[in-house]
Amino acid sequence: MSGWLDQIFVLLKRWAVGLFPEPLQPFISILLSIAPIIAVFGLLFGIVTVLERKGLGRIQNRLGPNRVGPYGFLQFVADGIKALIKEDVVPAAADRVVHFIAPFVMLVPVLLAYSVLPFGRGMTAIDFDAGVLFFFAAGSVTELALFMAGWSSRNKYSLLGALRAIAQMISYEVPLILAAAVVVMMMGSLSTVAIVEKQAVFSGILANWNIFTPWGLAAFLLFIVAAVAESNRSPFDLPEGESEIIAGYFVEYSGFKFALFFLGEYLGMFAVSGLAITLFLGGWSAPFSFLDWLPSWFWFFAKLLCFVAFYIWIRGTLPRLRMDQLMNFAWKFLIPLGLFNLIIAAIWHFVGGGLRGWAICGALLLAAYTGLGNALFKRRKWTKRTYRYAS
Amino acid sequence: MTISFIILAILVLAGAALAMSLRNLVHCALCLVLSFTGLAGLFLQLQAQFVGFAQILVYGGAVSILVVFAILLTRSGDTQESAEINRDWVIGCWIAAIVFSTLAMALLSSAFFKEPQAVPGQADARAMGHELMTRYVLPLEAVALLLTAALIGAALIAMPELRKPQGHAPDKEVA
User: Could you give the 3-state DSSP secondary structure of residue B90?
Assistant: First the structure.
């Protein structure tokens, strides 16, 4: 807990606000809370696109972008300039107003969601009492944006993509919220700041993160699967499925509006990872007490980059699911398991934790996991696949 | 009456008015969402964070999608121009007047209107949870039962397709 390094951004902001006259200070303070979020995560988006292309390239045994700047790391600048000066094509049949608004409806709620994430000790834009709920409320608006984009383009592929995206996002929002509800239940608070502060205590050398409990581990795994699906990424990238429906809901977008969708998607991915870090991985706290001297914001962003690496790895490794597999997986496996996990959390609360709690809750969770998995697979009779029309 | 209240009120009223008067049904639905969002802003202005966010989550996220899907599924995607005023507008006016007068009478006879300062602002999530789990547990359970029944009903409506003999496609599933 080295004081000034940990609080460097808070102190900098306080110093900068102090430079302005009294009546202007609230506005400057608001501006200085918002601008870094947009700048930092916008830049992170740029760097991650390059990292992703390079990572995927390595996984697929090729080099990836390596021409612009050192090791190709300035590729995103070139791409950004290209997107800005490209012609903005709007289909003649499109609903112009809705087509124009959709990218903003996609991006603004995602940016709003960042306001409740604690990036470091005392580094939260707004500390709402119902912060977790605010995050989900902001996230739920993006579904409407996808619909607006898909419908207003007057293109059957984009409409199909939008319908797929909405079906997927609504289905996976349930396990996502169930997983978060467990944490809210056990922490007794909806405020993201309070949730992190309760995890940032050490018992022995290990931090009190939620992931170090059986219900937390189960909820974390549920949350990660649902989060990948929520951000429409591989293996859940059916809404975009470029081999079937070209690019889904943003087929008819070009130039910077396309870039805005891209940005919204990546920012959504970072935001939901940030929430996972906040709820399960102790937010800005260090994992071991002897590592506590590193500044809090370092830990948050280190965890975030681990998440990004995980996402890229998953995208390079797994094939895309089929629509019915996707739906079955959400409704028949993730949601029952999420509901069961609520009961597990209650049992953990009454048993009082410790080794006994681990044994009971762990056994119950494993039994539920294998039981549900077996039930889901046994009912299907695996036969030779027959096609109604093709054969 | 602050500026933010006026802006939000205009948002809610304009959204509702446009939702009634626009010709394209999907546009109407989107304006309705605008109105819902403005309402959430009004809740937030009354320091009711939980209610406000729940309003956005439920109405802005879920109900709007439901409305939009209903429009698309019943009109098969193409948005026909619907008549702005149909012949039953007299009956509609009567129903609106009756609903409004009932609500107004109920509101005017409530304790809140007799003593406006009686209710302190207690709308945070913790207080609401306590009230729901103690005083209002019966209505909560009734709502839960209703929703479960609706869920089972929806599953039942979707079910029969499974039982129909599907020729030679045994692994066909309903998503």
Answer: helix
Q: Looking at the partner chain, which of A130, A170, A326 has a beta carbon nearest the beta carbon of B50?
A: A130
> Which is more confident, A322 or B170?
A322
- The answer to whether residue B31 is domain-embedded is yes
- ipTM for the predicted complex: 0.76
Q: How confident is the model at residue B172 (pLDDT cuts 50, 70, 90)?
A: very low
Give the one of B24, B61, B69 whose C-beta lies nearest to A140's C-beta: B61
Token representation of residue A29: 């303070």
DSSP A7-24: THHHHHHHHHHHTS-GGG
B24 class by beta-carbon count within 10 Å (0-12 exposed, 13-18 middle, 19+ buried): middle
Give the residue from A8, A12, A54 showing the smallest Cα distance to A32: A12
Choose the closest CB to B125 out of A130, A147, A327. Answer: A130
From A324's Cα to the closest Cα of chain B, the distance in A is 5
- For the question of whether the overall pTM of this predicted structure is more than 0.90, the answer is no
- Rounded to whole angstroms, what are the CA distances from A194 to A112, A177, A274, B114? 19, 18, 15, 39
Q: Domain boundary at B45, B64, B83, which?
A: B64
Calculate how close chain A gets to B118, using CA atoms only, in Å: 24
| B167 contacts in chain A (CB < 8 Å) | 388
- Amino acid identity, residue A107? L
Please indicate whether, in this complex, the C-beta atoms of B77 and A159 are within 8 angstroms of each other. Answer: yes
Band (pLDDT 50/70/90 cuts) for residue A1 is very low
Distance of CA A70 to the CA centre of its chain: 29
Q: For residues A344 and A366, what is the distance between their CA atoms, to the nearest angstrom? A: 11
Please report whether residue B158 resides in a domain: yes
SS3 A27: helix
Instruction: Please report whether residue B9 resides in a domain.
Output: yes
Domain that holds residue B11: 1-64
Name, of A267-276, A289-298, B21-30, the range with top average pLDDT. Answer: A267-276
Q: Is residue B155 part of a domain?
A: yes
Tell me which chain B residues have a C-beta less than 8 angstroms from the C-beta of A95. 24
- Please tell me the number of Cα atoms within 13 Å of A46 on its side-chain side: 16
What confidence tens digit (pLDDT) does each residue in A184-198 have? 888 888 888 888 888
Burial (0-12, 13-18, 19+ Cβ within 10 Å), B150:
exposed
Number of independent structural domains in chain B: 2
Over residues A131-168, the pLDDT tens digits come to: 888 899 888 888 888 888 888 888 888 888 888 888 88
